[in-house]
Each structure stands twice: as C-alpha cells, then as structure tokens.
Amino acid sequence: METKQENWPLLSFKEYEKDINPTPTYQRSSVWKPEQKQMLIDSILRKIDIPKIYLRETKKKDYQYEIIDGQQRMRAIWGFLKNDLSLSEEAEQILVKDKLFEVSEKLYKELDSSVVVERIHKYSLNIVIIYDATEDEIADLFYRLNNGTPLTPAEVRNAMPGEMKETIKTVAKHIFFEKVSFANRRFIYDQICAQMMMLELNNGLADTRDRTLSKMYSDYSKSVPTTAIKNIQNALDVLEKIFPEHSRLLNRAATINVYLLISYLLKNTKLTKDFYALFFDWYSQTEPERRKDNEYRLYMSSSSNSRSAIEGRFRILISALYQQFPKLGIIQLDQKRLFDEEQKMDIFARDKGVCQKCSKKVGERSWHADHKKPWIKGGKTILDNGELLCVKCNLQKKDKLW
Ligand SMILES: [Zn+2]
C-alpha cells in the first residue's frame, strides 16, 4: 500500500464529483444531520482546518477514486457547492478584510463575492491518496480510521477483513431478503445473516448479540465451515418460496424465528412443496394472535438477540407448529414448556438449594429449573426430569437443537 498527500482546492471537488465513488462496499450510507453539514461549511468559511480526506485511487472505469474516509464531509461540500445546503440560521457574521458579512441561512450562490473569493476560492483540503492497496488493506485502514466514531456494530464488522465478512456479504444478497419488511440500512441484512450463521455454528441456540457476532468474525476470519453456509442457503431457499414479497410479518426478530424453525425442520424431516403453502397459512393466521401474548411479546422485544429470547420464541413456535402438524413431530414435545411455581418449589426443596452441577448453594430467587433431558429433545416438564442449576451452570449447558 502506497500513499501520497495532496492539497486540492475546495472548488475542484465539484469537478471531481463524477470521478469519486462515495459508497464503496466498506462505506456506510449518508448519516450526517443537516446541522452537522452546516457546521462543516461554517468551519470552512472561518478558515478552520478540517480533517484529511482519504481517497483510494482505483483502476476501475466508472470511478477514478473511492472515499475511504471523509464521505460525510464530501457530501456536505458537494451539497453546499450545488446550492442544496444553506448555512445555519445561527451562523455568525464573518469578518473578511475588516468587513462583516451576513451568512446566516445563505446558500453558496447568495454569499457576498468577497466571502466567496477569500474563503471558498482560497480554501484547500488535505487529501491522502492511497494506491496499490489490496481489499484487505483498505478494509483495515477504514476500520482504524473509524475507530472511536459511532459506527454501528454491523458497520464495524463490515470493515473487518476476512472470510466471515466475505461469506456474510454473499449470503446477505440472497433473494429471500426481497421478502422481508425492512430495508437494508446500515448493513442490517448482514447482521441478520451473521445471526443465522451464529445459530448454525452452535447447532441451534446461541447468543446473537453484537459482541458475540464480532467475535465470530475474528474467530472465523481464515475459514468458514461449508456445512454452515450450505445450511443457511438451504433454509433461505425454502423461506424464499414460502413468503410473499415485503411480507409485513417478517420484521427482524420474526425473520430469525422463521429461519430457525425452517432450519430445524430441514434437519429433522423432509419438507414438501405442499408444506410451504400450509406453513405460510398457519404462520400468517396464528402469528398476529401470538404477538398479543405477553410471554411471546417479551421474547420478541426485550433483548431479542439474546440466547434466552431466541430460545423462548422458538419453544412457543415449535409447540404451536407441532400442534398444527402432528406428523412433523418426530419428537413428542411436552405441551408444558416451563416448570410452574409449585414444581420449582418442589425442585428447590428436593435439591436442597444446591446447584446439581457445581454444588454451589444458591439464593431462593437466583437459580434455574433445568430440564435434565432437554425439552426440545422430548424431555418432560415433570419433577423427575427437573433439576436445580445455578444461573452460570445453566447458561453453560447448551441445548443443541440439532
Ligand atoms: Zn452451578
């Protein structure tokens, strides 16, 4: 990777606009508010230095440069030079050659010519041009330059070089995403795909919050298991056939729900084309009612990417599904998913308030009633199949779905 530094007159940016790609793949979309843009232009008019802009020289036909860092600043400058952006109402007068000029709410074309000549024509920007760089080097540079500015976790992951990032980017282009109800702002589809990947890598249930997803990106930067990729592709192929375009049912949490259901079924049974239609009818008819249920609602909303929320939703859905399609249920699930208060008191008394795994004594409210044989594997919600576990031991125990 080579770099050179140049000074470009501000006005030259206008001509360069067609040569610069402001949104290469590692970039985020425009997110500055008007006030931030106005502040930048105000700084320029007051001869205040603004941070360097990093451009990558490309050998591509359509664009001569890509913006690595400075997209928001360049968009603000372009907007201002094209008279799409005015200065703020609060902008103070500007002193040029011992004379004060009004700039509040003015467009570029409305500025006094002395301000334009002295402050715009004479202003130049520090540009760093990167050339002979690999994709990985660019992604790494982008990641470093943006450390400390508020990128979303999905954006940060998107700038992390490696196999996992590439895999997720490819998966996120699956046509299934034409069926969801939300747009791909700030790499949301990548985030959803990363969550699916996390579930596959853990055989069903996993924490899919941002911190764990980022760790997955670095853990699997060298290679990604092909079975996991294939599983995701298979499930998305089926989901794509099940749902109509822009389905209102498919918000973010619901997308993970149906994904997990179909992925689980694909591993346990054969799904026919007839089933796709039946599944959609069942899901679209029952889901609105389910979302009125307090327990389900809680799992859908509060910390919905946590392992326990995903598991809670899955349990409710799979129970309902097996009720509707009993033939699918190779495993007989107990209709009762959770131990009730009375059973919990009995378990606590029988196990003498001691974790059955690490023998630690627990407080009366800080323990979990665990199924010895997992509920999802057909374990019954009865006293004999219940045991007291401390919270830590219970979270360590992974109930694999497949
Ligand atoms: Zn324990």
| Secondary-structure element order, N to C | EHEHEEHEEHEHHHHHHHHHHHEEH
Continuous helix count: 16
* Silhouette: elongated
Estimated helix fraction: 40-55%
The number of strands is 9
Ligands: zinc ion
Task: Kindly estimate the percentage of residues that lie in beta strands according to DSSP.
Answer: 5-15%
Unreliable sequence segments: none
Largest sheet: 5 strands, mixed
- Tally of separate domains: 3
Strand order of the largest sheet: 1-7-3-4-2
Overall pLDDT: 90
- Give the end-to-end Cα distance, rounded to a whole number of Å: 46 Å
Which structural class best describes the helix and strand composition?
Answer: alpha/beta
Rg from alpha-carbon coordinates: 28 Å
Describe the protein.
The protein has 402 residues and is an alpha/beta fold. It folds into three domains: 2-146, no CATH class; 153-330, no CATH class; 332-402, Orthogonal Bundle (DNA Binding (I), subunit A). The chain has helices at residues 12-16, 34-45, 71-81, 113-121, 135-146, 153-158, 163-171, 188-201, 210-219, 226-242, 252-268, 273-290, 294-301, 307-324, 341-350, 391-396, and strands spanning 2-9, 20-21, 53-57, 65-69, 94-96, 99-101, 124-131, 367-371, 386-390. Helix 8 packs parallel to helix 11. It starts with a strand and ends in a 6-residue tail after the last helix. Residues 355, 357-358, 360, 389-390, 392-393 line the site of zinc ion.
